[in-house]
Fold:
Amino acid sequence: MSFDPSQLNVEENEEFTLDITIESDVNVSGAEMQLVYDPTLIEVVSITEGNFFKQEGASTMFSKGTIDNELGTVTGIYSVIMGDDMMLEKDVFATITLQAKDNSGITDLEMQNVVITNSAGDKLPITITNAEIAIGDVELTAQETETEPTNEEESPKTGQNSAIIAIMAMCCLYIIKRK
Structure:
């Protein structure tokens, strides 16, 4: 899972977008995450669903999450395929529209508590590439890729349990298989 682009220079007070892309070499059925950022430098304006889970005409359930620009978090972002998991090509999971504030500086836009699952509810191993955003007259440095462990601990900021996406996927499968 990565931001595209992963590094970006913007002007103060500029509105801009970043895509979150997913690339998988196994079947997937859902993803869940939250975002964390410096609210003194940027704010999230909106989040829209991408085409990753909609490939091959699949129906999805998408949550753009809850934006809190005072704390610098977006919680409860998820998408689930309404049906069996599929092998999907690399594509956009979500597009985030942001607004730079009237301050110069560098901020990270981080994905946290990321969970990608298959239809059995198994969490898949993930690698995360976060974004670094320079606002105003500042220089960016080289960025490294982070690998985030997948465990079912609660988020210290939100109390969310990473099993939510697995439960949603299983409920969707149950409803579809009953029809």
